[in-house]
Each structure stands twice: as C-alpha cells, then as structure tokens.
Amino acid sequence: MCAPSADERLRNSFFKTLIDNQVTVELKNDIQIRGTLKSVDQYLNIKLDDISVLDDLKYPHLSSVKNVFIRGSVVRYVHLPHNAVDVTLLEDATRREAANQAQKAK
Amino acid sequence: MENLTIHDAPPPGAPQQGGRAGGPHIQQALGRGAPPPPQQPQQLPPQMFTTAAQLLDLTDKKLLICLRDGRKLTGILRSWDQFANLVLQSTVERVYATLPEATDESAVKGYYADKPHGIFLVRGENVLLLGEIDLDKDDEPPAGFEERDYKTVDQMAKERKALDRAKEKTKLKKLATLGFEGENIGEVLL
C-alpha cells in the first residue's frame, strides 16, 4: 500500500509493455476473459477492452459487456501472448533489480 | 490529468455528480472497517496506471458488477474510491439459471429474472469485476435466455448453486487429503 517496492515497479513496467496486446485473464472463479489489455495499476487491477468470455454458456451475464475492470485480487492467471514478451529484456531488468537489492542489503 | 496524484479529486467535468467527493465520503461511511488510506507513494506511477484513472472513465456509465458471492448487479456508477468501493444508482440484480442439460445448440439455455434495488454502496473487496454495458446490445436478453418471474429463477439458481457447492466441497476434501489447500475453501465463486 505504501511506496511501491522495486519488484512492484518492475512488474508494473513489465505490464505496461504489454498494453494493447491480446491477453486472457483467468479469474479465481474459473471464468476466462479474453480482451485487449488497456491498463494495469499497482494492485494489478486490469482493464480489458473488446472482451469475449471463453465459456459463455456458463457465464451468460457478460454477453452485452464491451470492456471490463477486473479487481486484481480475483485474478488467478494472466495468459500472455508469447511474442509480446521480450524475455532477454525482462531477464536483464530482473538481474539489475536483484543487483540493486543486494547492494542495498550490504 | 497527467500530474494528478491518486489523492486528488478527479478533474472537474468528468464525474460531476458526487464523483468528486466520492473518496472521502465513502471512507467515512465505511468507518473503521475501511483500510487506512495509502501513504503517499514516493515514486508515483504515471496517472494513467492508477485505480482512479481506470474507474474514472466508467463513472456515470451503466455497468455490470459481479460480486464475490455470485450476484450480478447492473447500475449506474456514480462514485468510487481507490479501494473500488462503489456507489451505484438504479441498481437491478439479475439472476441467471442455466438449465443443467443445456448445450451451445439448445434453443432455451436458461432463464433470468430482474429485481430492482435502488441505490447500492458496494464495499470494494466484494467486487469481482466491473463491465461497461454496451447500450446497443442491452435491450436484448442474452441469447437463449428467457425471462421468468424472480421467485422461480431464484429458486432454480439456488438449487444449482447448492449442487455446485456440494461438488466443490467433495473436490476440496479430496484435494485436502492429497495435501492441497484450496485458495478459497468454503466459498464457491460464481
């Protein structure tokens, strides 16, 4: 809740690189919602545009909904598109962050 | 918009009716139960990536709100704060009962019913998701669903829920013997 920690900041900027990509968000109640990632905030609340529900027979209530705000606390997984993740960049950023942490701990 | 902090009131012009004073009001209304306001973060994320900014463009729109207990509400979002505590106007609860034998091809997949409620203040932790309703599609009920009276549909939905809960319980019991701890034991989220 207070100042964002280093890994929080890293995670945040990572999600920002995924903005405007197609992602599938799986909630803790097993609903899977696919849509364009529009924004992510510090609690991992997620906003999706142009959504579709994978099992819409079981979840008919989202049929007339075009965009959703999902509370971060109910998200189980976010399925990311493979080609949108720059693994090398992410690894580098993570190592740098870890090095920073180690420096601070000394 | 760019240089606002999440503690600033939303800019004038956006949520005029109550949206401006929403945060503090809701917090007062919730009293001691509400978590304390977050401290000023040292390094602010860009304004676009805050809860407030995400909720700002949903203000005064007709929304579908899914709650943790499985209820679905539709209403107009009038006010909110950083915990996603919400004030809804003209709230209507809609229950769905999917027929157990329904498939994608069946003509009638289930029933729904509406129950008007009025103004709701929803505590943020109970919110699963908010969806903006496409007003063009809103007039038609979901394909394959027919309206019935509230009592009947509610009864059907409750029976279905009890069945699901029993199933979930046996599943969790079995998992527990294998050493797995469910993340939401005793609570079926629908």
TrEMBL record, chain A:
PROSITE patterns: SM
One Gene Ontology term of the molecular function aspect: RNA binding
Any single biological process term in GO: mRNA splicing, via spliceosome
Keyword Secreted: no
Keywords, alphabetical: mRNA processing, mRNA splicing, Nucleus, Ribonucleoprotein, RNA-binding, Spliceosome
Organism encoding this protein: Neoarthrinium moseri
Major localisation: nucleus
Subcellular location: Nucleus
Family, similarity comment: Belongs to the snRNP Sm proteins family.
Taxonomic lineage: Eukaryota, Fungi, Dikarya, Ascomycota, Pezizomycotina
Sm domain boundaries: 10-84
Gene Ontology CC terms, in alphabetical order: catalytic step 2 spliceosome; Lsm1-7-Pat1 complex; P-body; precatalytic spliceosome; U4/U6 x U5 tri-snRNP complex; U6 snRNP
Pfam families hit by this protein: LSM (PF01423)
Protein name (record): LSM complex subunit LSm2
From TrEMBL, chain B:
GO biological process: deadenylation-dependent decapping of nuclear-transcribed mRNA; mRNA processing
Keywords associated with the record: Cytoplasm, mRNA processing, Ribonucleoprotein, RNA-binding
Annotated GO CC locations: Lsm1-7-Pat1 complex; P-body; ribonucleoprotein complex
Source organism superkingdom: Eukaryota
SUBUNIT field: Component of the heptameric LSM1-LSM7 complex that forms a seven-membered ring structure with a donut shape.
One GO MF term: mRNA binding
InterPro entries: Lsm1, LSM_dom_sf, PTHR15588, Sm, Sm_dom_euk/arc
Residues of the Sm domain: 50-136
Region (Disordered): 1-45
The keyword Chloroplast is annotated on this UniProt entry: no
Biological role stated in the UniProt entry: Component of the cytoplasmic LSM1-LSM7 complex which is involved in mRNA degradation.
Pro residues bias spans: 34-44
Protein's gene: LSM1
Compositionally biased region (Low complexity): 15-33
Subcellular localization: Cytoplasm; Cytoplasm, P-body
Name listed for the protein in its UniProt record: U6 snRNA-associated Sm-like protein LSm1
Family listed: Belongs to the snRNP Sm proteins family.
